[in-house]
Amino acid sequence: MAKYKEIPCKYYIALGNCEKGREACHRTYCQHCGKYEPRARLRSINKKKQYNEKQRSLF
Protein backbone atom coordinates (compact mmCIF):
# COMPACT_ATOMS: atom_id res chain seq x y z
CA MET A 1 0.00 0.00 0.00
CA ALA A 2 1.31 3.45 -0.89
CA LYS A 3 2.12 5.90 1.85
CA TYR A 4 0.63 9.38 1.55
CA LYS A 5 3.31 12.04 1.99
CA GLU A 6 1.57 14.70 4.07
CA ILE A 7 4.60 16.99 4.23
CA PRO A 8 4.59 19.41 1.28
CA CYS A 9 7.60 19.66 -1.00
CA LYS A 10 10.05 22.46 -0.29
CA TYR A 11 9.52 23.72 -3.86
CA TYR A 12 5.69 23.85 -3.47
CA ILE A 13 4.47 27.44 -3.08
CA ALA A 14 0.71 27.31 -3.70
CA LEU A 15 -1.84 25.49 -5.82
CA GLY A 16 -0.55 25.64 -9.38
CA ASN A 17 2.71 27.35 -8.33
CA CYS A 18 5.98 25.45 -8.04
CA GLU A 19 9.56 26.79 -7.97
CA LYS A 20 10.58 24.08 -10.44
CA GLY A 21 8.09 25.41 -13.00
CA ARG A 22 5.74 22.46 -12.76
CA GLU A 23 1.98 22.43 -12.35
CA ALA A 24 1.78 22.09 -8.58
CA CYS A 25 -1.05 20.29 -6.85
CA HIS A 26 0.33 18.79 -3.63
CA ARG A 27 -2.20 15.99 -3.37
CA THR A 28 -1.50 14.47 -6.79
CA TYR A 29 1.33 15.70 -8.97
CA CYS A 30 3.82 16.70 -6.26
CA GLN A 31 3.41 13.34 -4.56
CA HIS A 32 4.81 11.55 -7.62
CA CYS A 33 7.33 14.19 -8.70
CA GLY A 34 10.92 12.98 -9.00
CA LYS A 35 12.13 16.26 -7.48
CA TYR A 36 10.03 15.88 -4.30
CA GLU A 37 11.94 16.90 -1.18
CA PRO A 38 10.06 17.33 2.11
CA ARG A 39 10.20 20.74 3.80
CA ALA A 40 10.97 19.18 7.17
CA ARG A 41 11.87 15.71 8.36
CA LEU A 42 9.28 14.62 10.89
CA ARG A 43 9.44 11.32 12.68
CA SER A 44 6.30 9.27 12.20
CA ILE A 45 4.74 7.65 15.25
CA ASN A 46 4.56 3.88 15.30
CA LYS A 47 0.96 3.55 16.50
CA LYS A 48 1.08 -0.24 16.68
CA LYS A 49 4.11 -0.15 18.98
CA GLN A 50 2.51 2.57 21.10
CA TYR A 51 -0.69 0.50 21.46
CA ASN A 52 1.24 -2.67 22.38
CA GLU A 53 3.26 -0.88 25.05
CA LYS A 54 0.08 0.53 26.51
CA GLN A 55 -1.49 -2.96 26.63
CA ARG A 56 1.60 -4.44 28.33
CA SER A 57 1.57 -1.76 31.00
CA LEU A 58 -2.00 -2.65 31.98
CA PHE A 59 -1.02 -6.15 33.14
Name its key features:
alpha+beta, 2 strands, rod-shaped, 59 residues, 8% strand
Description:
With 59 residues, the chain is of the alpha+beta class. It has 2 helices and 2 strands. Strands 1-2 form a two-stranded antiparallel sheet. The longest helix is centred in the last third of the chain and has 12 residues. The protein starts with 11 loop residues before the first strand and ends with a helix.
Number of strands: 2
Oligomer: single chain
Order of helices and strands: EEHH
Q: Give the helix proportion (percent range).
A: 25-40%
Class derived from helix and strand content = alpha+beta
Give the secondary structure arrangement, pairings included:
Elements: E1 12-14, E2 17-18, H1 29-32, H2 47-58
Antiparallel strand pairs: 1-2
Question: How would you summarize what this structure contains?
Answer:
The chain has two helices and two strands. The protein has 59 residues and is α+β, with helices and mostly antiparallel strands. Strands 1-2 form a two-stranded antiparallel ribbon.
